[in-house]
Write a structure and sequence with these properties.
Number of domains of chain A: 1
CATH topology of chain A: Alpha-Beta Plaits
Radius of gyration of chain B: 23 Å
Radius of gyration of chain A: 27 Å
Low-confidence stretches of chain A: none
Order of helices and strands of chain B: HHHHHHHHEEHHHHHH
Largest sheet of chain B: 2 strands, antiparallel
Helix content of chain A: 40-55%
Low-confidence stretches of chain B: none
Distance between the termini of chain B: 78 Å
Number of helices of chain A: 7
Strand order of the largest sheet of chain A: 6-1-8
Largest interface: B-C, 26 and 24 residues
Number of strands of chain A: 8
CATH class of chain A: Alpha Beta
Chains: A alpha+beta, B mainly alpha, C mainly alpha
Oligomer: heterotrimer
Strand order of the largest sheet of chain B: 1-2
Helix content of chain B: 55-70%
């Protein structure tokens, strides 16, 4: 019969109309500022810098190798290398950035900086509500604002952060083992070189 | 007896109010002031309804799509129209450089004025009609016809292809469906025997037992009402007939180049047209201000009228929430090849009803003809349609 | 002659003149609509409700729309460069003057033939309807037939031409 489909459709919308008042499951709306959907684990917005330990200045993983600065397609990263060095997570002395600025108004969230970083120092944040009334200074993030703890990284990307931690720990262990082996070898060598000298004497 | 007089007073409350207000004036000015008050009441009440309807529509549509709808401004979002109004008033009024300024300015005014004029003949309650004309129905349709010109003015003066296309579509659609609208109203005139809307309501305001003699409860009236509803939806450019402003293809149709308060006027005009056409449908088929069951007669008549109008508006919103937009050729085919022949047949059936006299025979004959025609036209119309996956010639 | 009559007459005449004189075709059509509206109001002022509303419905709702559609669908609405006056305006003027003379003569003659009644007969819609299907039923049917023929003709003109079989 003509018009049957229309009546069926009307019945469907009527069901929705009245159903939405009685069953909460129908309403999928999340009222944003008050309640939020937790960000997906692989969500990404803008980069941030990871640091280990309690002090961000001491624990910053970045060694200011400036690869990200060079790779960044829109050129929104500015790094100034330090003159002196500080020990990194394995204890090796490294440069550190005295200045690390990202202009978030230019950043296009491509994640290339994250992919090229050999030190797992820069990662993508999930914080997206960065609106500000100062469009020049307000979106130019310096290293104070960019630095986030490793715990924070774990909280937003747990799987990825665990992998990174495992890798870093492995590397550290390797380096330590190597250092230990080197030290032992050196000690043995020293012992070996010492004994003929002794013998020679 | 106290309660009866109370309800009578409530029924006449607007008259009492008017007489009280007019009483402050010198006697010579009273008739003119009374008329003026009636005009002011219409000009004030219906935009208020418009504001309420916008928020109800958005909330209702939201619920039909399992959303919440606006709920931020004020309690449950009911002050949303206030915010919208402030926004429309304070927005910059952009007039395109190459537009025809005078016509561009006049178009929304012509629309709103002609639509408001249509309310003058609607009986909104017992004796509550501003201008009880002998040819009220004709006046209503004359005003409806004049709105088409404003749509053309808007579309042409904007100097924008979307506006012009929207206007052309709008006018083509309105002319096509106006024929249907008029013809479906003619059957009511045939039975009611008058073009005066208050007489048509009077003709329906009687009861068999408790049931009213509304025209919708007759075979020809029901068919006429269905056709009238279709034509009214098309005439007011509401979904699924909202091609003139189909935003997916025409930006906003003929009001693409309108901003600020002029856009608000267009919006107001469209909603007012919806109210007035609902009012007309109520008057013609749903018994106007008469009560649905005889023992509800004590409730003030204007409550029934506005209740029925509100119900029709809910159906409008409901259809908008349900049906997808038609294509232009579908729209035209539907008007000229289906609705118009059916309306003509309905006229014939109405004449039969008139001359077969009282009794069960006319019920049987009229219903049989209409149902058979409906089924037959549906069958014939659908015969050449192939539903199923669509095949594309070039886009595979 | 009330002041309302003079206002309406001015509106009608102004609209008519503007329709003739304006350069932009669409403006001319809209001005013609103003003239139609003025005429309708004049009818209403004469208590001829049915005629007045029919004037609005038919002339503003249909004829004006038909005119603007014709303008838009044919020549476009550009302003002609060489003015709106035809080269044969003198002939047109003669024809117009002749028509006006005939109309004026007819009106004046009818005034003499039918002296002004004290009160205009109030023709209700009901009476008009009875007259249409009673005394004037033949003209009505002829007009209906004519319009039907015109509609059928329009449909035939608008029909898709069937592709002819190749010879």
């Amino acid at each position: 019969m003509l018009g049957e489909g229309i009546l069926k459709g009307m019945a469907e919308t009527a069901k929705n109309f009245f159903g939405s008042y009685v069953s909460k499951e129908r309403l999928t709306t999340v009222e944003y500022p008050e309640e939020r959907v937790p960000a997906a684990e692989n969500a990404r917005a803008f980069p941030f810098l990871v640091y280990d330990g309690p002090d961000w200045q001491a624990g910053l993983r970045c060694v200011s190798c400036q690869i990200c600065e060079k790779e960044c397609p829109p050129k929104c990263i500015l790094i100034e290398k330090s003159k002196d060095k500080k020990p990194d997570y394995v204890g090796k002395p490294q440069f550190y950035p005295v200045r690390f600025d990202i202009d978030l108004s230019v950043c296009m969230s491509c994640q290339i900086c994250v992919e090229v970083c050999p030190f797992d120092a820069i990662k993508m944040n999930t914080e997206f509500a960065l609106a500000t009334d100062d469009r020049f200074g307000g979106l130019l993030f310096s290293r104070e604002k960019l630095a986030k703890s490793n715990e924070y990284y774990h909280s937003i990307h747990p799987t990825e952060a665990a992998e990174v931690d495992a890798r870093l720990a492995e590397e550290k262990a390797k380096v330590e083992a190597k250092a230990k082996a080197a030290a032992e070898a050196a000690a043995a060598k020293a012992a070996v070189s010492a004994s003929p000298a002794e013998g020679g004497n | 007896m106290v309660s009866t007089s109370f309800f009578t007073a409530l029924d006449r409350i607007f008259f009492l109010l008017r007489d009280w207000l007019v009483g402050f004036l010198p006697v010579a000015l009273r008739p003119a002031a009374g008329v003026l008050l009636g005009v002011i009441a219409i000009v004030a009440v219906f935009p208020g309804f418009f504001a309420l309807t916008t928020v109800f529509e958005r909330k209702g549509l939201g619920r039909m799509q399992n959303r919440l709808g606006p709920n931020r401004v004020g309690p449950f979002g009911f002050f949303q129209p206030v915010a919208d109004g402030i926004k429309a008033l304070t927005k910059e009024d952009v007039v395109p450089y190459r537009s025809d300024r005078i016509v561009h300015f006049l178009a929304p005014l012509v629309l709103v004025v002609t639509v408001f004029l249509g309310f003058a003949v609607l009986p909104m309650g017992r004796n509550m009609v501003l201008a009880d004309m002998d040819a009220g129905l004709l006046f209503f349709f004359a005003m409806g016809a004049a709105t088409e010109l404003s749509i053309f003015m808007a579309g042409w003066s904007s100097h924008n292809k979307y506006s012009l296309l929207g206007a052309m579509r709008g006018i083509a659609q309105m002319i096509s469906y106006e024929v249907v609208l008029l013809l479906s109203a003619v059957s009511v005139v045939m039975i009611g025997g008058s073009l005066s809307l208050s007489k048509i309501v009077e003709a329906q305001n009687s009861y068999s037992g408790v049931f009213p003699h509304w025209y919708i409860f007759t075979p020809w009236g029901f068919a006429g009402f269905v056709v009238f509803a279709i034509a009214a939806t098309a005439e007011t450019n509401r979904s699924p007939f909202d091609l003139p402003e189909g935003e997916s293809e025409l930006v906003a149709g003929y009001h693409t180049e309108y901003s600020g308060f002029k856009f608000a006027l267009f919006f107001l005009g469209e909603y007012l047209a919806m109210f007035s056409i609902s009012g007309l449908g109520t008057t013609l088929f749903l018994g106007g201000w008469s009560a649905p069951l005889s023992f509800f007669d004590f409730v003030p008549s204007w409550i029934w009228f506005f209740g029925k109008v509100m119900l029709s508006i809910f159906v409008f919103i409901w259809m908008r929430g349900t049906l997808p937009r038609l294509r232009q050729d579908q729209l035209m085919n539907f008007a000229w090849k289906f609705v118009l022949p059916f309306t003509l047949l309905n006229l014939f059936v109405t004449a039969l009803w008139r001359f077969l006299g009282e009794g069960w025979l006319r019920w049987a004959v009229c219903s049989a003809i209409l149902v058979a025609a409906w089924a037959l036209m549906g069958r014939v119309g659908m015969r050449r349609k192939h539903f199923g996956p669509r095949s594309y010639r070039y886009a595979e | 002659m009330s002041p309302i009559f003079y206002i309406l007459a001015a509106v009608t005449l102004g609209g008519g003149l503007a329709a003739v004189l304006l350069r932009q075709l669409v403006h001319a059509a809209l001005a013609a609509t103003v003239a139609f509206a003025g005429l309708a109001l004049l009818y209403l002022q004469l208590d001829a409700q049915f005629v007045g509303f029919a004037q609005v419905l038919v002339y503003i709702g249909a004829v004006a729309i038909l005119i603007v559609f014709a303008i838009l669908l044919t020549r476009g609405s550009e302003v002609p460069k060489d003015g709106v006056f035809s080269r044969t305006w003198a002939v047109g003027l003669v024809v117009a003057a002749a028509v006006f003379a005939v109309l004026g003569w007819a009106v004046l003659a009818s005034l003499r033939a039918l002296p002004l009644a004290e009160a205009a007969p109030a023709a209700t819609v009901h009476e008009i309807g009875v007259a249409l299907v009673g005394r004037y039923v033949l003209p009505l049917e002829i007009v209906g037939l004519l319009l039907t023929a015109a509609t059928v003709g329009a449909v035939i003109v608008a029909l898709h031409e069937k592709e002819r079989p190749k010879q």
